[in-house]
Amino acid sequence: MKKIILSIALAGSITCVWAQQNPTAMKYAGIISPDLAKKHLSIIASDAYEGRETGKPGAEKAAHYIADEFKSLGLQPIVNGSYFFDVPLTENSLNATFAVGGKTFANGDSFYAVQPSTDRTLNTSEIVFVGYGTEAEIGNTDLTGKIVLWINEDKAADGKPQGTSFRGSEARAAITKNLMSKNPAMILAANSEIAGVLTKYKNYILAPRLTIKKEDTKPVETKPAVFWITNEVAEELVKSGGKTFEQLKTDGGAVQTIKADVKLSYNSVKKDVKAVDVLGFLPGSDPKLKDEVLVISAHYDHIGLLPEGTKGDRVNNGADDDGSGTTGIMTIARAFSKAKKDGHGPRRSILFLGNVGEEKGLLGSEYYTDHPVIPLANTIADLNIDMIGRVGYEYKGKADSANYVYVIGSGMLSTDLHNVGEKANKTYTNMVLDYKYDDPKDPNDFYHRSDHYNFAKHGVPIIFYFNGEHADYHGVGDEVSKINFPLLAKRAQLAFYTAWDLVNADNRPVVDGKKEEGSK
Fold first, then answer.
1. Whole-prediction pTM
2. 142-169 burial string, b = 16+ CB within 10 Å, else e?
């Protein structure tokens, strides 16, 4: 949903449209330069950092680089005298085998498995086809202990486009939850896009999964495993029923039991992994406000190396994702630290937060927000920067290609925060603020895909700055040479000006929106 912001006076206790420029803020924003950005990014996104994969030497090297920069700027180490906040992780490797009618399918070629909670071996002579998984289709069908085949696409409805993306939809998330509640032994989720996804992302998909290490010894809740399967596998599963999988889809997905000789097993191997968030703290100058903190965050991890034996370039440098955001927070930190040294320090405190494990499931930010060093009640907002160095698909060749940024989440929890961001842009940077993806229900689901979400789910207002995906997203082509450094600097300056207003305002942004249902 794209929001159109008119150039008229907006309501809000801490905003106005035609604000006078603050020469002090402009002086320090000038520190955020293309040259400074290039200096940092050319190091952390170099081949020497090996794609900064969480738990690997490259990520550790990046963490030390960021910490050294924070130290040189005079930011305080607030984690028991350290800049490093330990994020205890577990690496989960999955072994999975899958055969139908004696035909063996390979993990990563024809299916991939979502990490199950327990190991299991299943042998069966039948499956239950549940169509599109709606309650109207399933009715009173007993799925307990059964292997379930599900069309993981939206069912066509009058007046509504049929969603087929493998990423799913809100309706399919509800269907998955409902299917899980019926205690099947296994869910086989068939989607027409899976074959293409496996071709492009096989190595990434098969990589061991990282999770936050469990802190208790309570028994693990047993949940059905989910195998995401190609249409080829689905066709093999249903062929004894006399109709092809495509015919069953066309028929509307009537629930039925189908004879199928299925043998599958999965087991996991676990080991501890060392990882850290990097925290640099700039204390506020106002005795009445310094206990309140603004978080400025970016994730410094990326997806690492392609497997040994790969021809050509193996390094996923992650210059844009998210070397650009990490560079952004380091340059913003330099601007604020210089202002403080010159006697113009922020009234509120600022926490510069380099998150680890974002590419593995927002792990570093999840662990931080569940174990905050500074109480979340004292956290006024999170400005999260994830990919600000490139031009996305939709702006290629457009007049605004070097003067835009996608803004996500700014008004979901706080109208005040949204207005501060708008004011900062109108007063200083005059960029196109594109709200196309500013919707939790957008099929791209960007609102839930970066570290800001772990703050938002706790009720902390957020702004997510993003340039959109491009052809080199999660690929070896995401190189420093392709970064638009003037654009990166301008987007970082927008975040700086927004932060400047937030930390120096008399009042923190009022939370007048609602957390998503199910958030903490």
1. 0.81
2. ebeebbbbbbbbbbeeeeeeebebeebb
